[in-house]
Design brief:
By secondary structure, the chain is of the alpha+beta class. The protein has 2 domains: 291 residues, phage-related protein like fold (Alpha-Beta Complex); 89 residues, M1 Pyruvate Kinase, Domain 3 (Beta Barrel). Helices cover 16% and strands 30% of the residues. The protein has a 6-stranded antiparallel beta sheet, with no helix packed on it. A 6-stranded mixed beta sheet has the order 13-23-19-14-18-17. Strands 1, 4, 20, 21 and 22 form a 5-stranded mixed beta sheet that branches. Helix 2 crosses helix 4. The radius of gyration is 25 Å and the shape is globular. About 8% of the residues have low confidence.
Length: 432
């Protein structure tokens, strides 16, 4: 069982500049922060029931004086979805020596300064993973293999990074979401069976070096964190999707209005015209001219850059109160229609989602934080002889679920968007 000891941070302890610890790479989680800012409901193992109407009632009658009989009433039909919590945890393990340095503030300049700082460092990495799942399809996919690896041992894994068209979740991310030293499983998408297990040795944007410790890896396999397949929180790629699917334990093939309206952009770059068409689609489907306002628009910085280059009113704007003009390209702002433009590099490069923000909610059985129901901050590990040890652990995590209870027709997906070219930077871009 691996614990954090002085040998793991020897190089860091020798540094004179504390900020050196931040050079590990991009680790921001903007969509996670948005999700966690929503008002939380409660959820238990029994799940949350979401009733809805699958067919309107009927029997409306038009009659004459000569025949005033009314038609029989045709009852409406109802069904229900059910949402269950996803459970996430990360166990942090320390040697006693490292624990006392961090807890007692014995670190000197240039070292990891405190237990709180170390916990936040680990929590930030976990929030990043959840951020990606909240954009996802509920499978936990972090990469799609483009390699056929037929034996155990060291090999090179290529990840899918299409530059045009639309495909599965993470099809534009290459291997950029795979972390050094982490253990992953290759899942056969046809059977949901584990085909192989590997550890990442050398990470990379489009390819990475791995050590296959069990089984094999086939082209097209879904790469997931060890033991995470279909256990992660569902994301908006599942909740706002134009295909038939199992959403919140309901087959949307049985209720077509559960499928999200879609605009096929034909492989072209995103444009103001595409936004206008998408908003018109929502207005028509709801027969409400105000349905184009107050949307949550989720896209990548690459799509934002494409719009900026078309002078899509992003260079300057007046804030909603009308008392300040802000210049430049913000990462999040509210436009004249009340739309929240939300930029996140973890969002899909092939799609943009324009959502009714009021339809998306979070239910929790445990808020984000420490597993401390026993009142203990740290727990001693039993050790080899089950008599205790100078090895300690704590755990952080979250239990809950993102869910939707509004109308699918209030959302729209713009799909098949071009995501290549000089003005479009992705997480797999080696250099601009």
């Amino acid at each position: 069982m691996a614990s954090l000891g002085l040998q793991n941070v020897a190089a860091l302890l020798q540094e004179r500049v504390l900020s050196t610890a931040k050079f590990i790479g991009e680790n921001e989680a903007p969509f996670f922060k948005y999700i966690m800012s929503l008002k939380k409901g409660k959820i238990t193992e029994e799940g949350m029931r979401i009733p809805f109407q699958t067919a309107e009632d009927g029997g409306d009658t038009y009659f004459t004086y000569a025949d005033s009989s009314f038609r029989p009433y045709i009852p409406a039909e109802y069904d229900a979805m059910r949402v269950y919590p996803a459970r996430f945890a990360k166990s942090l393990q320390f040697t006693g020596e490292m624990l006392r340095i961090l807890r007692n503030g014995l670190a000197t300049e240039g070292q990891i300064g405190s237990m709180a700082a170390k916990t936040e460092e680990s929590a930030k990495s976990s929030r990043k993973i959840l951020n990606r799942h909240f954009h996802g399809d509920g499978t936990g996919t972090l990469c799609i293999s483009q390699s056929a690896i037929g034996a155990t041992g060291v090999a090179t894994l290529a990840g899918m990074y299409v530059t045009s068209g639309t495909s599965a979740h993470t099809s534009t991310k290459g291997t950029s979401w795979l972390k050094k030293n982490e253990i992953y499983q290759a899942i056969n998408p046809a059977t949901d069976a584990v085909r192989g297990i590997f550890t990442v040795l050398t990470p990379g944007k489009r390819t990475c070096q791995i050590n296959v410790t069990s089984g094999t890896v086939a082209s097209g396999d879904l790469i997931v964190l060890f033991l995470s397949y279909k256990k992660v929180p569902v994301g908006i790629r599942l909740l706002a999707n134009f295909n038939n699917r199992i959403m919140q334990n309901f087959n949307t093939a049985n209720a077509a209005d559960m499928n999200t309206p879609v605009i096929d952009n034909g492989g072209n770059p995103i444009s103001p015209a595409a936004f206008s068409a998408a908003k018109t689609l929502v207005q028509v489907f709801n027969n409400d001219a105000m349905q184009d306002r107050g949307r949550l628009i989720i896209m990548t910085p690459g799509h934002n850059s494409t719009l900026v280059n078309q002078a899509f009113q992003y260079r300057s704007y007046t804030n909603p109160r009308g008392n300040e003009t802000v210049y430049g390209v913000p990462s999040k702002y509210v436009d004249a229609d009340g739309d929240i433009h939300f930029l996140d590099a973890d969002a899909p490069d092939d799609q943009i989602r324009i959502l009714d923000a009021n339809s998306y909610h979070v239910a929790e059985s445990m808020p984000w934080g420490a597993y401390d129901d026993d009142g203990q901050e740290f727990r001693m590990l039993f050790g080899t002889y089950n008599a205790g040890s100078d090895e300690w652990m704590k755990a952080i995590g979250w239990q809950g679920q993102l869910y939707k209870d509004g109308r699918a027709l209030s959302d729209v997906v713009i799909t098949n968007i071009a995501h290549s070219g000089a003005d479009y930077i992705t997480q797999t871009t080696v250099s601009p």
